[in-house]
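Example S7 (C-alpha cells).
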C-alpha cells in the first residue's frame, strides 16, 4: 500500500511567499504520488461526497481499502509546508545539493533567508552564530576531531583498551613528540623479527589530498627540521600489501552519515567510490618510494598523471563505484559479505572512538537549554583493502568532496568543468537520502504511519547478513516517498548496538567529564571541577590525598596543554581527563586488564554520583516539605568549599603515588605525578 505521498507542488501550500532573487523555480515535471495513493484520494473524495465512511464501505472490515482511505485522511491532516533549505554556504557541494532538493521538491534558499530555515547546508564547518533552530549538516568540533593527529590519538585510546578490536588502524606515532618512541619501538620490533622490513608513511597534520606526504624506510629519514615543529605529523606503518585490481592500488571512499550523537545513530551508504593509482603497484623499495602515482591513491594527485582515465561508467577508469569492485571480487569467489561486515564494524568502532570528544564540543557550542540547531554530518571514510581483504582505516574526512564534475583539459591550457557520472550517481544519492533521513516533516509522517500502515517489524540480523543492499528495511517512511528510489543509506547503529556497546567506555568517562565541566561553554576542566569529581565519586582516601589529586591534575594537564592544538582555554582537556581516569583505575583495580579496570571505576563513580543525586533529590523534597528548613545539601560545585578554594598543594608529598600507571605514548611520556615540574 502507498499511504501518503508528498502532495504535488500545486497542492502543497507554501509557508510563506518569500522567494529571494535568483531562487530557482521548482520544476513540476514528475507527479509526486504513486497511482495507488491518487486512486485512494479519489476514492476518499467519492466517500466524502456520498457521506459514507470507510468502515461502512468495507462492511466494517479492516481491509486494505479502509487503510488507504485512512491514509488519505492522514494526507490531508499532514499536508504541510515544504522543507526549507539554506544553501548559501554549500560551496562545492552546491550542485549535488541542488539536484537532491529538486528531486525532493524541497525549497532552496541559495542566498540565505531572513526567516529561519529547516536545514542549513554548510560546505565546510558548523560555525554560524546566527542559527538558533533547525538542523545544520555539520557538528561542532568535527573538523578538529578528524585531523590526522587527533584521530590517531582517539583511536589509540581505544587501542589501549581494546587492542584486538581496534587493529584496523595502522600503528601510528605522533611527531615530533613521539619521535624518540617511534625510533625505539621500530628498533625493538626489528630486533625481535629481523625479517621485518617496514616502510612508513609520514602525513602532516591537517593535510589533505596527499599534501606533504612521503614514504620512508628508516625512522631517521623523517624530516624533523623546519615545518614539523610548527605543523605536527603522523607517521604510520605503510600497508605494503594492498589488494590490487588491474595491478593497481586503490582505496575506498565510503560515505557515512552521523545522524545523531545522542542517541548515537549511524548510517552507511551502500555504495562508495574507489580511487585508483595510475602506475602499476610494486611493493615499496628505496627506488620507488617517491612514486606517488604508484603509492598514493588521491584523485587530486593522480588526475595529473598521463595515465588517468576519466570514468564514463561505474566499472572502468580511475574512479569507479565500490559496488563494481565488490562485484568483481565476488566473481573471483571472494566473501564480499564478510568484507562488508568488516567495513561496517570498522565504521562503528571509529565513530565510537570519536564520540566522546564530539560530545564535549557539542555541549560547549550548543549547551542544553540554549537555543541552537541540531546537527548531522556526512563523513568520508577512506579505507584500504589489504590483499587478504581486511579493511584498514586510512582517515576520516569531515568535508568529503561532494563535487559531481571534474576539470577536463579540452586543449592545452583550456579547462572546462564536465559532469562526472560516477560522482553524480553516488554523491547525489548520499545527499538526497541524508535529507530524507533528517526530514523535519518525517516525524509527523511517522506518527501518522504508525496509525495507517502496517507495522514494519525491526529485523534482528546478524552483522554478517548485512551485505551491500542486503535486503534491509532502511526506513519505514519509504512508502511515503513514491517516485524516489529506496534509501541508499543503511542504518548500522543502533541496529548493531548490542555488538558494540561494550566498547563505549570512553563515552561514559566523557559523561563524567561533562558533568563536572560546570560552566557551560567550556571544553576544559578546572582544578576545582577535578577535585569535585574526585570528592563526589569518593575517590580520595588515606592513601590518595587531595594533595595527590592536585598533583595528578597539574602534571597531566600541563603535559597535554604543551602539545594540544587548542590553546584558547586553560585547564584539563578530555584526553587529559581520560588519561587521569585510566591512571586512577589502574591504581584502584590492580591486576585486571585495562578495560576492566576502567569499566570498574566507571561503575564505581556512576554509583556514587547516582547516590548523591538521590540524596539531593531527597534534600530538595525535604526543603519543599519543611519550606524554611536549612538543609545542608551537597552540590557538584559547592561541597567542602574550604578545601575547594585551597591552593594547589605541595606536590612532592604525593610524588610517585602513581608509579606504574599507564604512561607510555602520552605527551611527555612520564608517569603522572612522578615529581616533574
Ligand atoms: P590525505 O588526507 O592527504 O589524502 P591520507 O591519509 O588519505 O591523506 O593518505 C593519502 C594516501 O596515501 C591514501 O589515499 C593512500 O593511498 C595512501 N596511504 C595513506 N596511509 C597509508 C598507509 N598506512 N598504508 C598505505 N597507504 C597509505
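Recovered sequence:
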Amino acid at each position: 500500500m502507498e499511504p501518503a505521498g508528498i502532495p504535488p507542488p500545486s497542492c502543497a501550500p507554501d509557508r510563506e511567499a518569500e522567494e529571494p532573487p535568483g531562487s530557482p523555480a521548482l520544476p513540476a515535471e514528475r507527479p509526486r504520488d504513486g497511482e495507488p495513493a491518487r486512486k485512494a484520494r479519489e476514492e476518499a473524495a467519492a466517500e466524502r461526497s456520498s457521506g459514507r465512511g470507510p468502515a461502512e464501505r468495507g462492511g466494517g472490515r479492516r481491509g486494505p481499502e479502509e487503510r488507504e482511505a485512512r491514509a488519505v485522511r492522514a494526507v490531508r491532516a499532514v499536508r504541510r509546508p515544504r522543507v526549507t533549505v539554506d544553501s548559501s554556504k554549500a560551496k562545492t557541494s552546491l550542485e549535488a545539493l541542488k539536484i537532491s532538493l529538486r528531486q525532493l521538491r524541497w525549497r532552496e534558499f541559495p542566498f540565505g533567508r531572513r526567516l529561519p530555515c529547516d536545514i542549513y547546508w554548510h560546505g565546510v564547518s558548523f560555525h554560524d552564530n546566527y542559527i538558533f533552530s533547525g538542523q545544520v549538516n555539520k557538528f561542532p568540533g568535527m573538523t578538529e576531531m578528524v585531523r590526522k593527529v587527533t584521530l590517531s590519538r582517539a583511536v589509540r585510546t581505544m587501542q589501549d583498551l581494546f587492542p584486538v578490536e581496534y587493529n584496523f588502524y595502522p600503528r601510528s606515532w605522533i611527531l615530533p613528540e613521539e619521535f624518540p618512541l617511534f625510533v625505539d619501538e621500530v628498533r625493538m620490533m626489528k630486533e625481535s623479527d629481523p625479517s621485518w622490513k617496514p616502510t612508513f608513511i609520514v602525513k602532516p597534520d591537517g593535510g589533505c589530498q596527499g599534501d606533504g606526504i612521503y614514504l620512508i624506510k628508516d625512522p631517521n629519514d623523517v624530516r624533523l627540521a623546519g615545518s614539523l615543529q610548527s605543523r605536527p605529523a603522523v607517521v604510520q606503518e605503510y600497508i605494503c600489501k594492498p589488494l590490487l585490481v588491474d595491478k593497481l592500488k586503490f582505496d575506498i571512499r565510503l560515505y557515512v552519515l552521523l545522524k545523531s550523537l545522542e542517541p548515537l545513530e549511524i548510517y552507511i551508504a551502500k555504495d562508495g567510490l574507489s580511487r585508483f593509482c595510475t602506475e602499476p603497484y610494486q611493493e615499496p623499495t628505496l627506488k620507488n618510494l617517491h612514486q606517488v602515482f604508484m603509492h598514493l591513491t588521491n584523485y587530486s594527485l593522480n588526475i595529473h598523471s598521463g595515465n588517468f582515465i576519466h570514468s564514463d561508467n561505474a566499472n572502468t577508469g580511475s574512479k569507479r563505484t565500490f559496488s563494481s569492485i565488490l562485484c568483481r571480487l565476488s566473481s573471483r569467489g571472494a566473501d564480499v559479505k564478510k568484507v562488508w561486515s568488516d567495513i561496517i564494524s570498522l565504521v562503528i568502532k571509529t565513530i565510537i572512538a570519536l564520540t566522546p570528544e564530539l560530545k564535549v564540543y557539542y555541549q560547549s557550542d550548543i549547551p542544553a537549554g540554549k537555543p541552537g540547531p541540531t546537527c548531522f554530518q556526512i563523513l568520508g571514510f577512506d579505507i584500504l583493502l589489504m590483499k587478504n581483504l581486511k579493511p584498514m582505516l586510512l582517515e576520516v574526512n569531515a568535508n568529503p568532496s561532494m563535487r559531481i564534475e571534474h576539470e577536463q583539459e579540452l586543449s592545452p591550457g583550456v579547462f572546462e568543468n564536465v559532469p562526472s557520472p560516477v560522482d553524480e550517481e553516488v554523491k547525489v544519492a548520499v545527499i538526497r537520502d541524508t535529507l530524507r533521513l533528517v526530514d523535519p516533516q518525517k516525524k509527523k509522517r511517522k506518527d501518522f504511519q504508525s496509525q495507517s500502515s502496517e507495522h514494519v517489524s525491526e529485523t534482528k540480523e546478524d552483522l554478517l547478513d548485512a551485505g551491500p543492499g542486503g535486503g534491509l528495511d532502511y526506513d519505514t517512511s519509504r512508502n511515503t516517498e513514491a517516485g524516489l528510489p529506496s534509501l541508499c543509506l543503511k542504518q548500522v547503529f543502533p541496529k548493531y548496538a548490542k555488538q558494540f556497546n561494550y566498547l563505549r567506555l570512553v563515552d561514559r568517562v566523557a559523561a563524567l567529564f561533562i558533568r563536572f565541566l560546570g560552566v557551560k561553554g567550556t571544553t576544559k576542566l578546572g582544578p576545582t571541577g577535578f577535585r569535585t569529581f574526585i570528592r563526589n565519586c569518593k575517590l580520595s582516601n588515606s592513601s590518595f590525598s587531595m594533595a595527590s589529586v592536585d598533583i595528578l591534575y597539574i602534571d597531566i594537564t600541563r603535559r597535554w596543554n604543551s602539545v594540544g592544538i587548542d590553546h584558547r582555554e586553560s585547564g584539563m582537556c578530555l584526553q587529559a581527563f581520560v588519561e587521569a581516569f585510566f591512571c586512577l583505575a589502574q591504581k584502584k583495580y590492580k591486576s585486571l586488564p585495562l578495560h576492566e579496570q576502567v569499566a570498574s571505576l566507571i561503575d564505581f563513580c556512576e554509583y556514587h554520583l547516582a547516590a548523591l543525586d538521590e540524596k539531593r533529590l531527597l534534600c530538595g523534597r525535604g526543603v519543599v516539605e519543611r519550606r524554611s528548613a536549612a538543609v545542608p545539601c551537597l552540590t557538584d560545585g559547592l561541597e567542602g568549599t574550604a578545601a575547594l578554594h585551597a591552593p594547589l598543594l605541595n606536590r612532592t608529598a604525593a610524588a610517585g603515588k602513581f608509579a606504574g600507571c599507564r604512561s607510555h605514548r602520552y605527551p611527555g611520556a612520564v608517569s603522572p605525578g612522578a615529581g616533574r615540574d
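Notes on this example. The CA atoms of residues 357 and 574 lie 7 Å apart.
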